[in-house]
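Hi F.,

I've been meaning to write this up properly since the lab meeting, where we talked about keeping a consistent format for the predictions we share between groups. The idea is simple: the sequence comes first, exactly as it goes in, then the structure tokens exactly as they come out, then a line or two of notes. No screenshots and no reformatting. I'm using this chain as the first example so we have something concrete to point to.
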Amino acid sequence: MTFSSKALTPNSRSDQDDDTTSLTKSFGMRLLLVDDEHAHLKLLGVMVEQGGMPCKTARSAKEALNLLQIEPFDAVIADLNMPGVSGLELLTEIRLHYPHLVFLMATGVDDVQFGVQAMRLGADDYLVKPLQLDMLILSLERAFHKKWLEQKVEHYRQNLEQLVCNRTVELQNALGQVEQSYADTLDALGAAIDLRDGQTAGHSRRVALWSIKILTEMHGTTQQLKHLAMGAWLHDIGKLAIPDAILLKPGPLTDEERMTMQGHVRIGYDLVKRVLFLADAAEIILSHHERWDGSGYPRGLKGHDIPLNARIFAVVDTVDAMTSDRPYRSAHPFQEARNLIERQAGIHFDPQVASVFLGISTGIWEDIREQASAINFGAAFAGIPPGIPGNPPEFEKPQTK
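Output, unedited:
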């Protein structure tokens, strides 16, 4: 390193001594000076120490790296042209192992392009020989201010990540509470339906669980299972608006009464479709009395125009109706219900859904029926298939509300 005579005269910048002292106190700088020319290195060391900045010197890049391993430094000022390991190579090593150190590169007038290259490789600035102390201090000030800003940005980034993490946890907890409130609301609505039509108590729970079983066998997604569970659970919600004289009538209905009763699907649909999280379930409520051959109601849909979940529900709804006691008749054996589904496959029922139903043993269906009241159905409202007998292993674990 070489210096101008002005730079080597301590009194030549007495007006700047206070700034130098201030800089040292502000940053607590400890410098490492690296140059293979002993005289220049010693002179620079004297100058920066007289300016109030403690320093150590090294005559090679290797010696500098050894010092960095055993002592803390805040900044390195290194000559570009050194035998063995050059200043650029030293810069590469320092940036790899000490990324937060300030690094200034000293170059000759003819090597300015290398100074620019050094900055591209990570140097904070470069100084052109002959070095002047005031320019050196100015470069250090800029470099330390840059590092301070980088640390502030890094601190902000880390705090932001933590803030995002905390907010994410809070949001997940809030969503969990919303899901639980949905489940509680659906539980209450299902209980209201059962109370309104006491003769079919437990029907909504059974058909919902049976529907989930079929869709699970058909490899339905978690979201599809969730919508099916909610739609099946609320399929008869429209009956809350049907007069008791019709809903609870023990004998056959007149044509007019039958038309009123059939209106429950439209009433239920109109009621539920306005609730955002029940939008997909509402379609099951509207379509669960449609038939594969188009003979159902209210729209006379046919074949695959009927939503899949409604086609599934049509099968289990018929099975539960046949195998449950009614005021005007006793329950039919389960085998009779299976025989009906087999005969009506491709007529009233989707043949594929009927095939899946018939492929599951009567024992499993009866087990689901017997255990329906004990199964935690609220989990299904959160998109988790409840533990149903005969489900694949991942669905066998009991869920807790």
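Notes:
Residues 10-150 form a domain with the Rossmann fold fold (CATH 3.40.50.2300).
Strands lie at 31-34, 55-58, 75-79, 102-107, 125-128.

If this format works for you, I'll send the rest the same way.

G.
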